[in-house]
Amino acid sequence: MPTESRPRAPDAESRAERKERTRRAILDAALALAADSNLAAISLRQVAKQVGVVPTAFYRHFGSLELLGLALVDESFRSLRLMLLDVWRHAPEYRDFIDGSLPIVAQHVRENRTHYAFIARERVAGPPRVREAITHEIELITRELSTDIARSGAAEHYSSTDIALLADLIVSFVVTMAERLVEDPDSEARILAQARTQLRMLLVGALSWRSREPAAGAEARDD
């Protein structure tokens, strides 16, 4: 008779849960240690000590501090991008891109302040691959906004190049707003109101803009 196999799923699940808790603890420790400086100023041993694990345990989760930084960048942007995409794809007019996006960004900053503080620091002072990853994520958000503006028909008089420029302007404003919210969380209402006004001022000009597509073989020229 075949012997009855012992159930092993619960053990496997508990190991996976322990591994995820340790990974989460490492990420949180790195955020805390880098709060007063940046990722480049902390060491792997500091992170391991903070978590209460040996340095070799760190390598079972991340090959280096730089890879840990990349994981934090991905974690910081993933949910924000999904929320913004949902707003933009249901935004029929320019003002809906603004009025829908800004409160979502403010809420996300409020709920993930340490991540945004990390992004603000590492965007200018982090390791090269981390800076590149942050730039890539911002560019990805910009491209997604550009696509949704084009789909909405709100920029029917724009060339694809000008739609991309407009999206870049909007995202740049939003990034600046997020950094201000990190620096001064008590002034959220004022910062939001200022950003909304600034973006609406920008869009007053955008609504009147007409692109001129270049003739074949000629350079683009805008009126």
From TrEMBL:
<dbReference type="InterPro" id="IPR009057">
    <property type="entry name" value="Homeodomain-like_sf"/>
</dbReference>
<keyword id="KW-0804">Transcription</keyword>
<feature type="domain" description="HTH tetR-type">
    <location>
        <begin position="20"/>
        <end position="80"/>
    </location>
</feature>
<dbReference type="Pfam" id="PF00440">
    <property type="entry name" value="TetR_N"/>
</dbReference>
<protein>
    <submittedName>
        <fullName>AcrR family transcriptional regulator</fullName>
    </submittedName>
</protein>
<keyword id="KW-0805">Transcription regulation</keyword>
<feature type="DNA-binding region" description="H-T-H motif">
    <location>
        <begin position="43"/>
        <end position="62"/>
    </location>
</feature>
<dbReference type="Pfam" id="PF21943">
    <property type="entry name" value="TetR_C_46"/>
</dbReference>
<dbReference type="GO" id="GO:0003677">
    <property type="term" value="F:DNA binding"/>
</dbReference>
<dbReference type="InterPro" id="IPR001647">
    <property type="entry name" value="HTH_TetR"/>
</dbReference>
<dbReference type="InterPro" id="IPR050692">
    <property type="entry name" value="HTH_transcr_repressor_FabR"/>
</dbReference>
<keyword id="KW-0238">DNA-binding</keyword>
<feature type="region of interest" description="Disordered">
    <location>
        <begin position="1"/>
        <end position="21"/>
    </location>
</feature>
<dbReference type="InterPro" id="IPR054129">
    <property type="entry name" value="DesT_TetR_C"/>
</dbReference>
